[in-house]
Structures are given as C-alpha cells and as structure tokens.
Amino acid sequence: MSVDKEYLTASYDFSLPEELIATHPASPRDHAKLLVYNATTDTITHTYFYDFEKFIPKECALIFNDTKVIKARLFGFKPSGGKIELLINRALNAHDINVYIRGKVKVDTEISFEENLNARVIKRNEDGSREVNFYKNGTLLRFEDILPIIDIIGHIPLPPYIQREDNEDDESEYQTVFAKEEGAVAAPTASLHFTEEQHARICKNFKHAYVTLHVGSGTFKPVDAEIITDHPMHSEYYDISNTAKEILDATTPILSIGTTSTRTIEFYDKHGKVQRGEANLFLHPNNKPSRVNHLLTNFHLPKSTLLMLVSSFIGLEKTQELYAEAIKEKYRFYSYGDAMLLIN
Question: Which residues pair with 251 in a beta bridge?
C-alpha cells in the first residue's frame, strides 16, 4: 500500500551547506534576514527583521512565549572521581527532575557539583534519560530552589548543532528580551530577533498576550520513524495567561510568534481549552492548525517535528520550495539563524 508523501519522514529531509548553520546571532538582533511568504498572493519577499511590523496583518493579535532559558547544563563528578555532564530537561514534579547524563551512571549514584549541590539518580528511562533528585547539604530541593544555584554553576544549554562552548554573550543572546518564567532548556528562537525597542513598539500598536511553554530538549529530536505519525511526541509544560485566553477564545486573527507559542495555542484549542498542563501536540499537514492564522518562525532541522509544523500551515511542497529559496539566498538556519513569516 502506498503512503502519502506528507506522511513520509524522508519527505522532510534536505541538504544544508554547513556554512549556513548559524553559530552566533545577528547583531543587532533585528538585523537578521526575514523571508515573508504571503499565501494569498503566493509571493515571497526578502527583507530584514527590523521591517517585520510592516508585514503584520491588520486587526491581528500577537502571542509570545515568555519562557526563560535556565542554565541547565551542569558539570560534576561521580563518587569515583569520573567527570559527568548533566543536562536538565524538565521538572516532572516538585522534586523529580528528568535529565540526560553523558557518562555511565547507575541508579542510586550520587553526582557532586559545585555549591554543595548533589544529584541522586532515582530512575533510568527507556529513552536513555534519567530521573534525579537534587540535594544541597543533604536537604532535598524543590525545582524552584535549584534555579538560583544552577544560575551560578550552570551553563547555557546551546543546541547540539552549535558546536562550540557557551560564552558570556550567550547568557543574554540565547534569551528573549521578554523572557520571564524560568524553566526552558531551549529558547523560543523566533522571538530572539526582537529588540526591546521593537517589541515595545509592536506591543503598543497591536493587541498581544503571553503564553508560557517550557521548551524541552525534545524539540531538537529528529523523527526516526519512517511514518511521521509513528513518532512519540515529547511533552512540555504550558500555561496560558488570562489575557491570552481572552484572545484565544475570541475570533481575533492570531499571529503566533514561534512554533512553541503555536503548539501551546493549538493544544489549548484542540484539547478542551485547559489553561495549563502538559502539551504534546504534533502538528503536520494532516493535523493542521485550528486557531493560529499566521506564523513567525526560524528555519528548522531536517526531519524535525518543527519542519512538519511549518508544513501544517502551507503544505509540504510549499515548505520545500521556501527552504530551497532560503538556501539559494543564503539565509542562516536554526536557533541563531534568520526568520520566516507565513501570512495565510
């Protein structure tokens, strides 16, 4: 039996010249390039992000993700003295934290970090992640108690394709100017292009609101299954403000700032309009958005759920066409790269 190509993971693969992978952001932020695609007129415009406002449809509300990236990458030692790298992925509850550990560690192993912080491995999961409890001087810590400690000893968790160590600049560059709610281990990258001045100006001139989606490391995980719908979608904590709820429950056209805001809005709209909880929505051409009208996004990894999300707005063939155009015009790709605005 033949399978529609929109269901095939291989359809979302593409070759990207290595020099187009952005390892540092544009400076200033709003000098990133912007590809604008208008689906109504089927036209492409090449411009820069500082002109973004000119393309916002009238009577549109903008929804931003105000999550804040934490210093989730920690370096410590096993009792034997062996070095360990630990990446916090997400809090499962007040005390149990899902993490990825580079190095062999068994359940009940205690890892030591600076500032008298320790992590005890309590479970190993099938996907290779672990669950840990954190302690300081023997006292079990809640997740919110860990944050000020890792802010001192931790490192910004740059995406794996940025093959360099984080530096002091990344502490501000890999953070949106409106970041507020701590908990993400990856930035909502479409929002990285906004300067404080531009963001303030847009918020003054357009209806807007904030949602929170604490982006997990699963956002970078490629789809391994041959059929995209066989992919187990990762789950992330979300919270929708009352202001955002009012907009989402009305009929105002929505411009979603980024894929993370989109996943939050669409999960809310498709799953009973619950304001907070766990979102694991997988948008693709056969599960299209029901509430978001327009999308601002970056250029994503091959075979990623984010690329499939873009295709849910404009279809697979148009997505392939726009990505080929972006490569031809030497747009910069991925988290620190350039942006694309889809107007439907």
Answer: none
